[in-house]
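User: Hi! Is it possible to get a structure for several chains at once, not just one? Here's what I have:
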Amino acid sequence: MIGLQWIYWLAGLYLGWVAVLGWRDGGNPRRRASGAFWGLLALMMLAADRLPPALVGAAVVALALLAGCGGLGRGRHAESSVEDKRSEAARLGNRLFLPALLIPAVAVLVAVPLANVAIAGVRLFGREHTTLVGLGLACLLATFAACRLTRQTPACAIEQSRRLIDAIGWAAILPLLLATLGSVFAAAGIGDAVAGLVRQAIPVDNRFVVLAAYCLGMLTFTMIMGNAFAAFPVMTAGIGLPLLVQLHGADAASMAAIGMLAGYCGTLLTPMAANFNLVPAALLELRDANGVIRQQVWTALPLFACNVLLMYVIIFR
Amino acid sequence: MNYWPLVGIALVVAGFALRLNPALVVVGAGLVTGLVAGFGPVEVLALLGEAFTKQRYLAIFLLTLPVIGLLERHGLKEHAQAWIRRLRGATAGRLLTVYLAARQLTSMLGLNSLGGHPQTVRPLLAPMAEGAAEARHGELPDTVRQRLRALCAATDNVGLFFGEDVFIAFGAVLLMQGFLAENGIVLEPLHIALWALPTALCAFAIHATRLWRLDRRLAREMEALERRATASPAEDVP
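Assistant: Yes, the chains can be modeled jointly so their relative placement is included. Here is the combined structure:
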């Protein structure tokens, strides 16, 4: 049976390989920090479930310190010239899209039609997280397909991915860290504290008012935290689950999905979401650093109103 | 009710306002929040560790990089650019509408990295939008050009945000699924992802309407400018 553990091992081996290549890369002034960072993340992928939780917590702090104190630097990468790329593009044509399209195709195939396939009474895929297992397998298959198409080895594919890994850097684990922060917030009772404040402020018997408070909470909290991932656990544990799902009987799946998108409207409005709003303003040489946000206001606000209405219509079906 | 853990939120806000490294800010806020909530130092580390172990799947997206890296080395970006250039001949508004639709649809398939500000907007979309506008209205004044560029970046964001949530393996969908499972509500990611569709349609309708009006606004503004330009020399004549 192919379970999520296999995919963690695959990711651990891949990141371990990246760590070794990074540690040996003489072109990166911070090669040791970079090697240690990816090596530690590889170790977490391979063995976090077998280590004592406090030790894993210490490793998380170490990852943050490696990322925050001096950064990971950038290595030297063998780049092909623009002419080479153009001639390769002309030679391979639309076939170049195929391995890239293989990733979503295989992921969806495993998650939906193949999820419950059994061979001789044994399930092919684990019962849980089939989507993730599908994604991991899809990446493996697509890598082999890309290698075949370009007549390169998987080792070469990993070497080429270092360019992207170095460009992403510590930001690769930011969503993970924000999700971790969300769990700590939940354990510390931040959801309760926020819910306590909200319950004092609004009439909880009125389901439209509660729903509007949940959406507005997602919007403002996302603007404060710079992304909806951090806002979601707090607002959903504080208002969504206790008041909408448990008290008013709302449907959890649609409430979560639309609530998250109400948060995305906040991402369009905040300079905290630097990678979406401030970086492009710099890239496009705009004089006004908030120029992109200004163009997004009149999409974000009507869309937020749509989200509130959609949620009201959908979750109380 | 213990309101002290709310300090954690204040710390995140302060850290981002001071432009400290977000990874440090987030982990630091987690440690402090755990401590003020009454956990011991080792307990807080254990709390972080347990959460991290459960959420590790958010790093699985890194496995896509070898494919993309290899294909990029063999001209994926160049081919995609050549392919998109065939759409030329449209107005700025129509070009951006097509891009919005393409960005939403590819994000729904999980192909987030096909677009983006450094890869697509700066080298391709913004120049094409400016070119299309200038072909129709003549040379753009600087303020109009800056606004048009900002709108290109905004269009990429809207297309990405309100497309990616429909893809079942996207981080946000998995985050929601994981969070609800922790709270005893077990769902398949697909059930959550499909409920992002109504908002995706609304986002397209709202932003495409604004883009549709863009061409007329550009024409109006350029006409006004032209009138002023032809009117002003007349005033100079005594």
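The mean pLDDT of chain A is 86. The first strand of chain A starts at residue 118 and ends at 119.

User: Great, thank you!
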